[in-house]
Amino acid sequence: MTLIATVPFLGSMKEVYWKPKSWSKINFDGQKFVVNDSIGTNFDKLNLEFDKYCRQQLKNIINSQIARLRGKNIEVELIYTDGIKNFPKRISTSVNKYLKEIGYNHKIDYKIGKYEKEWGVNEINPKNKTFTLYFNQDLIKYDSGPHIEYVVAHELAHVFHRDHSEGFNQTLHRLFPRKRTSEEFFKSGISRRFRLPNLSGNKNFSLILVAIICLILIYFLGQLLISFFGNLFSSWFYSGTKTQF
Fold first, then answer.
1. How many percent of the chain have pLDDT more than 70?
2. Which residues contact residue 154 at a Cβ distance below 8 angstroms, ignoring those fewer than 6 apart?
3. Pick the CATH number of 66-192 from 3.40.190.10, 3.30.2010.10, 3.30.499.10, 3.40.640.10
């Protein structure tokens, strides 16, 4: 196997190896990535396959987190009416029950993509009664799960509160008690400790390539110098010799 690159994944830099006879295009064994001949040392293909792998793995994590958080009971204050006036009432409910109560589609759709600034976004469509979440696929590069769950919980809390009020913070804390730790994680800029683009080539591989190019240049330069001085000495020798008859 040949080391060809390093990539950020699950909170640390992982090495990528090229193994020509590997069965999978790209595979992660828990420690390193292995790619086969269909990718080889083509960084464009490696970027595409790595992004696809990240999206699928993040989808698996988010699926399980949404399923668990949706059924978690929390206390929220809702506004009811008796036909004459409105009055608040505190109830214990879950995301599932609440969405059903307000007439929204019971299924929460979500999409994973690349976003420049947002880790997660929520979108409510009152007309179609749908609730859609959007998650940044780079999440999986910087964490293995806990901080991803914070982003999922944050967006789900917006089912109950559209703003970032104290009520929102209380709801988020009930869904995700480790809220403060994750907020510090994202605010600290830890997600910027990895250089982008996603792939950084192996230094040894690059040095070898540079060394080969230098040797080739030295060889051709040497040939030019030999030819130049050879012609120069030859010209000097014949011009300085007198022929006698």
1. 78
2. 120, 172, 176
3. 3.30.2010.10
